[in-house]
Amino acid sequence: MATNTLSEVAELHVPDLKWKGFKVYKISGGAGPQHAHGRRDFYKIVLVTSVMTVSYGDQTAEINQTCLVLINPRISHSVIHHTERKGYACVFTEAFMAGRERTELLQNSPLFRFGKTPIIPLNSEQELFITGIYQKMLSVYQTDYEHQAELLKTCIELIMHEALRIQPSSNEPKHKNAATRITHRFMELQERQFPIESIGSPLKLRTAQDFAENLAVHVNYLNRSVKEVTGKPTSVHITERIVAEAKALLQHTDWSIAEIAYSLGFEYPTYFNNYFKRVTGLVPKSFR
User: Fold this and answer.
1) pTM check: above 0.70
2) C-alpha atoms less than 13 angstroms from C-alpha of 164 in its C-beta half-sphere
3) How many whole angstroms separate alpha carbon 175 and alpha carbon 164?
4) Is the C or the N end of the chain the one with fewer CB within 10 Å?
5) What is the CATH number of the domain that holds 209?
6) Treating both helix axes as pointing N-terminal to C-terminal, what angle do 208-215 and 178-192 enclose, rounded to 10 degrees?
7) Domain total for the chain?
């Protein structure tokens, strides 16, 4: 039993990915050698049949059938393979999907948002449809077709829309009123701060007041709107996200606890230790 990233094959060809912003490949075989896992600068969409456990941020999920797995570059992930696996995968950068409508689909899709499950079980009809799209991508990827990139982008869009059709989100803001609009802006602004990639660029927005000032609204209005739309106070959303990032940094980096504390905007490591323990019941060292 070994731990691997879903991009293990693609990572052998990272220069190719960075040059074109896209790669598609077929998955086959058993578990490979162990790989360190972490966050990357590209998205992944994987069609896989296997029995495995997926670690995604601070969550874990079991796969025991054919599934579509959608990985956000902001969130660390790893996979423990228990059986042989087969399927397809594509990796792509946000720049590859450039264009107002496509970028909006990518950024706003609940399939790529923090806190949403990245795993979508498929029935035989859905598997057949998405397999056909991957086969088309492989075929196009190996040609010199003049509009190759556009056709590949369209294939990615088809997979994403099919995933949304299979598993629609009933909790996404519909922007029907001012409260949902400001809540959506708050959630997007919060998520844009992550992942923390450098100790030298600490988290800047850490309180409801910080977000309210950035969004040019009164803090009471922000708090009231967020609570109305989500059922949770602004402070709870902020705390949950900071702690989730802290867990990812503790698990997937070799930064010291002091460095993690500073990167998350805490003036002293002791403040971070107390904050983390209050929320999780554990001190950071124990969690790591």
Assistant:
1) no
2) 16
3) 18
4) N
5) 1.10.10.60
6) 110
7) 2
Q: Give yes or no: residues 75 and 201 share one domain.
A: no
d(CA 250, CA 272): 12
Crossing angle for the helix pair 234-252 and 208-215, to the nearest 10 degrees: 110
CB 215 within 8 A of CB 189: yes
Q: Which of 108, 143, 168 is the last residue of a domain?
A: 168
Omega of the bond prior to 195 within 30 degrees of 0, cis?
A: yes
pLDDT digits (tens, 9 = 90+) for 234-265: 999 999 889 988 988 888 788 999 999 999 99
Task: Assess whether 110 and 212 both reside in one domain.
Answer: no
Mark whether 247 and 131 lie in a shared domain: no
43, β-bridge pairs: 92
Q: Provide the greatest CA pair distance for the chain.
A: 58
**Residue span of the structural domain in which 244 resides:** 178-286
In a domain, 14, yes or no: no
Sign of CA dihedral 211, 217, 223, 227: negative
Q: pLDDT digits over 60-116, tens only?
A: 778 888 999 888 776 667 776 667 788 999 988 877 887 656 666 776 666 666 556
Helices then strands, each counted (H, E), the chain: 11, 9
What's the CATH code of the domain at 122? 2.60.120
